[in-house]
Design a protein that fits this description.
Number of helices: 8
Structural class: alpha+beta
Strand content: 25-35%
Shape: globular
Largest sheet: 5 strands, antiparallel
Distance between the termini: 27 Å
Strand order of the largest sheet: 3-2-1-4-5
Number of strands: 11
Length: 340
């Protein structure tokens, strides 16, 4: 009870070990390494941290909610949530007129099946009749709002919410999220995903990019989708969850057959050897509306050229650090951790 952050990390380690032993197709050794590093790093820092750092290391069993008055919210997208601790549900991201990101979630014990069901359930916020998937494309006017430090919206009895007009990703205020350069957004996201970062940086690990799809790239862990950001930066787009019950993998492979397509995307930074994002949502390839890539299933007819075959991305020359010695160390760690 006194160390909820360490307890959560320990639970993640145990759950991932069980998934490995059960040959769960969604298990990844990199996830186990990350969870174990979080557990060991947190345990080490407990003995040396003080003040605000110690509070962050201990974590919070319950997140405090503070009054935030009246809020006008614009839906961005909805993502499935399936945790290593056995919880499942959905999280809808919304933005305020000044660009602050908030979330409306419904997560409880369950798995992928619960996540798929919750997406079409009514949002637990005031008297609105919107489902999570509908809210991701609509808007809300909220009175008596309460918000946690990481941006979660409270659903207390005093909260009133009614449906309002949403905004397209190309319209204000949402369009402003895509204005900072990829470098600025990546620097902010790297700070937020640092093991020593304050864990209440809600949404700060999200990147909003305009990209051109280049095609599929083969890696040791499977295929990913290579894309070029405005400014020429190459980024690898990977699935957020490999569970076959979710639409991530099928959508990514379908988009790999459409090189040259320009999309506006939302992704979550994955610290790696190459610039890498888990792809969460994108503009529709036809330019009409948006796609929640964990829930909505694209069809070949949705592509600019429905008859195009899968297209490998052109080979890219290795840049500085392409053969970084750190990569060898990471591989050795990934071999050592599962072996105990």
């Amino acid at each position: 009870r006194q160390l909820p952050r360490a307890a959560s990390a320990a639970l993640s380690v145990v759950t991932l070990l069980r998934a490995a032993r059960a040959a769960d197709p969604s298990y990844r050794t990199a996830d186990l390494v990350t969870a174990l590093a979080e557990l060991l790093g947190t345990a080490h820092r407990v003995g040396t941290a003080t003040g605000a750092e110690l509070a962050a290391v201990r974590g919070r069993a319950r997140r405090p909610y503070s009054p935030d008055g009246s809020l006008r919210l614009y839906g961005l997208f909805t993502e499935p949530v399936v945790t290593e601790s056995g919880h499942g549900g959905a999280r809808t991201w919304v933005a305020t007129p000044d660009g602050r990101l908030c979330t409306v979630g419904d997560v409880a014990p369950g798995g992928v099946g619960r996540a798929l069901g919750v997406a079409d359930r009514t949002v637990r916020l005031g008297d609105t009749a919107l489902t999570h998937r509908e809210l991701g494309r609509a808007g809300l006017a909220v009175a008596g709002a309460t918000v946690s430090p990481d941006g979660r919206l409270g659903a207390g009895k005093g909260v009133k919410a009614v449906t309002a007009r949403g905004a397209a990703w190309t319209e204000p205020p949402l369009a402003a999220l895509w204005e900072p350069s990829p470098a600025e957004q990546a620097a902010r996201a790297l700070r937020s995903v640092s093991r020593y970062a304050e864990p209440d940086g809600g949404g700060s690990d999200l990147l909003f990019l305009d990209v051109e799809l280049l095609g599929a790239v083969r890696e040791s862990g499977g295929a990913c989708l290579l894309a070029r950001c405005d400014g020429g930066v190459l980024v690898r787009l990977i699935v957020a969850d490999d569970d076959p019950g979710l639409a991530h993998r099928d959508n990514l492979m379908l988009l790999a057959t459409a090189p040259g397509t320009r999309l506006r995307i939302v992704g979550r930074l994955v610290p790696a050897q190459h610039p890498r994002l888990t792809l969460l949502a994108c503009s529709h390839p036809t330019g009409e509306g948006t796609v929640d890539l964990g829930f909505d299933r694209l069809r070949r007819a949705d592509l600019p050229d429905p008859g195009a075959p899968a297209h490998p991305a052109p080979l890219q020359p290795g840049g500085p650090g392409a053969e970084s010695p750190l990569h060898l160390l990471e591989r050795r760690v990934e071999q050592t951790v599962p072996a105990g």
